[in-house]
Amino acid sequence: MSEPLLDVRDLRVSFRTRRGTVTAVDGLSFSVAPGEVLGVVGESGSGKSVSMLGLLGLIRDPNATVTGQVLFRGRDLVTMPDKELRAIRGRDIAMVFQDPMTALTPVYTVGWHIAEQIRAHEDITRQEARTRAIGLLEEVGIPDPARRVDSYPHEFSGGMRQRAVIAMAMACGPALLIADEPTTALDVTTQAQILDLMRRENAGGSAIVLITHDMGVVSRIADRVLVMYGGRAVEEGPRPAVFRTPRHPYTWGLLDSVPRVTGPRLRRLPAIPGMPVSPLDIPDGCAFAPRCRMRHAACTERPALAGDRQHRDACWLPTDDRAALRREETTP
Amino acid sequence: MTVLLRASEVVKRYPAGRAGAVHAVNGVSLDVRAGETLGVVGESGCGKSTLGRCLVRLTDLTSGRVEFDGQDITALGPRRLRPVRAGLQLIFQDPYASLNPRRRAGDIVAEPLKVHRHGSAGAIRDRVAELFEVVGLSAAHLDRYPHEFSGGQRQRIGIARALATRPRLIVADEPVSALDVSVQAQVLNLFADLQDEFGLTYVFIAHDLGVVRHVSDRIAVMYLGEVVELADAEALYAAPAHPYTETLLSAVPEIDDGSDPAPRERIVLTGDVPNPSDRPAGCAFHPRCPYARDLCRTERPPLTEAAPGRLTACHFPLVSSSRAGAPTGR
Fold it and tell me: Does B318 touch chain A (CB under 8 A)?
């Protein structure tokens, strides 16, 4: 296997609050190979977004503590001086958020945003930057880019804004694109367009970390999948393995509780009981144990992420008969 | 089968700027049968929420007619609408915005009972406790404020409030779209249980095609304020009759574990949904339709029966009466 582009080891993000220390991300380790698409799946409070903000040094809260190692091309982002980190962010690592308006200033044109992005990292003239911006808008499928470059964000639809933000992110040809729920606010037909666009950017050489709550979206684009719960990784592996032979009871629950467009219809869905764990009170043992039907004595102790190098999960159940257990679980 | 709610040629127009107008709902006619779940699906701006509000008379119609249980409620004034409303309730999308943050959960659920003069304070208290139990909340929750609840629990409060007056029909507008997937499944199960227990009729408005298929007996697909297809859920998903339905279904990122030898071919639409104040002539979908012909550009197709039980507004439907249920070749 080639040298990973991003290698995260034992990342911890905690916040001091009036109600005690909240550990939002608790010992997360993962890596992203060059050109790979990693899907990070989890529900609200699972720590999927905050872990990415933490590793990019984007958490400004003075009560936050980020520890661990985040090696990007061998250099640790956590200990890196702010100035060097700023040069990497936006150029080598770009980020796209759920709501495109958080990344766009309403008082400047779309073209200005993209040109600004390029000029922050490269020494080129305004005119050259503008020409590049038009090219980028064309690449992300904005019709009539030479005219649209002078439009303001409010003149764009939601899907077009997300395209413009992706054009900004891709402006400097980043090696890694981190996309946080980039399609969640969009309609299905627009979502399909944006996923196609991300696949194209990936084919152009950029690795992608895609954060989402949607198992369907992940199954359509990711090479590898990381499932998070309560600030920890509960399962990690290549996409076919995670979707065909999911190992963690939480992953089973996520896959089974989604109503499908095809296949048999059930009157009642196999739901996971209870609600997602709050980062304020994560149990000492397995974070999922309180909602798990297979909970047993061992679960009061925290399971490690274990397995072969390809497919790992954090659960005390014997690995050998997981498939049989799952069948038992889903047939009432 | 008895029709509980009938909408005929419902139009809702909002004025917009200089002499312009947005046709949010543009001539929708449909029947909701007693005991069924009618799903209404479409993308943002298609008018599905406005239609829902018209059906419960939360907004006045520009033209058209709504009948509930045989009674024309289109023009009823507030006083005469009140007894009708007891049987016709709405559940909102945003469990954060639809509950008064200054009131306790128990009081929120008691409100409709007070409005409809349910009985003594004691009777109301008993009924509220009963409703909390029905939706899976405990008596300990009665005195808490909305901010003390999770999203799923808040939606349960909204459901309890809607159930308070023992309605026959509930219009649910995106009731699970703000919830996490695991909680979404719980709330969908609650909807199913309540329907079985109380014989409720639902109009279930949602954009998630998986959710709509799961809950619905029949489904209306909306595009730009119009119903473009109306059919039984199974038939519609097995073989969509309208090209827009076909595109919508093909765009859904269904979980793909790589085992399907022939995955559904995807049709990716270009462009965006047109602005509802500037509806294209002819069929509203023609500028984005992969099958559009000349006729589609000039003549608006009416909602007609393409095959038994399959209503569609398309000049060239993808299912034909000769081969009902089977997609025609392209």
Answer: no
Residue-by-residue pLDDT tens, chain B, 330 positions:
799 999 999 999 998 877 678 889 999 999 999 999 999 999 888 999 999 999 999 999 999 999 999 999 999 999 999 999 999 999 988 888 899 999 999 999 999 999 988 889 999 999 999 999 999 998 889 999 999 998 889 999 999 999 999 999 999 999 998 888 888 999 999 999 999 999 999 999 999 999 999 999 999 999 999 999 999 999 999 999 999 999 999 988 888 776 665 556 677 777 677 777 788 899 999 999 989 999 999 999 999 999 888 999 999 999 875 544 444 444
In terms of Cβ atoms closer than 10 Å to its own Cβ (0-12, 13-18, 19+), residue B266 is middle
Q: Do A215 and B180 touch (CB under 8 A)?
A: no
Residue A65's DSSP bridge partners are: A14
ipTM: 0.86
Residues A312 and A248: beta-carbon distance below 8 Å = no
SS3 B136: coil
Q: Is B207 on the interface with A (CB under 8 A)?
A: yes
Which member of B210, B213, B251 has the closest CB to residue A189? B251
Q: Give the C-alpha separation, B95 to B154, whole Å.
A: 5
Q: Is A143 on the interface with B (CB under 8 A)?
A: yes
Question: Can you state the percent helix, strand and coil of chain A, rounding each to 5?
Answer: 35, 20, 40
User: Rounded to the nearest 5 degrees, what angle is found at the Cα of B262, between the Cα atoms of B257 and B267?
Assistant: 95
- Please check whether residue A24 is in contact with residue A231, taking contact to mean a CB–CB distance below 8 angstroms: yes
CA–CA dist A260, B208 (Å, integer): 10
**How many residues in chain A?**
332
Helix-helix angle A126-139:A110-121, to 10 degrees = 120
Measuring CA to CA, which residue among B95, B60, B224, B84 is closest to residue B172?
A: B95
Q: Is A154 on the interface with B (CB under 8 A)?
A: no
Instruction: Record the tokens describing residue B275, joined without a space.
Output: 């602005």
Q: Which of B60, B35, B40 is nearest to B248 (CA)?
A: B40
Pairing relationship of beta strands B310-312 and B226-232 according to DSSP bridges: antiparallel
What contacts B70, CB < 8 A, 6 or more positions away?
none
Q: A163: nearest CA in chain B?
A: B271
Long-range contacts (CB closer than 8 Å, 24 or more residues apart) made by A51-55:
A51/A8, A51/A11, A51/A13, A51/A24, A51/A25, A51/A228, A51/A231, A52/A95, A52/A178, A52/A180, A52/A209, A52/A211, A54/A11, A54/A13, A54/A25, A55/A8, A55/A11
The whole-angstrom separation of Cα B310 and Cα B323 is: 12
> Which pTM does this prediction carry?
0.89
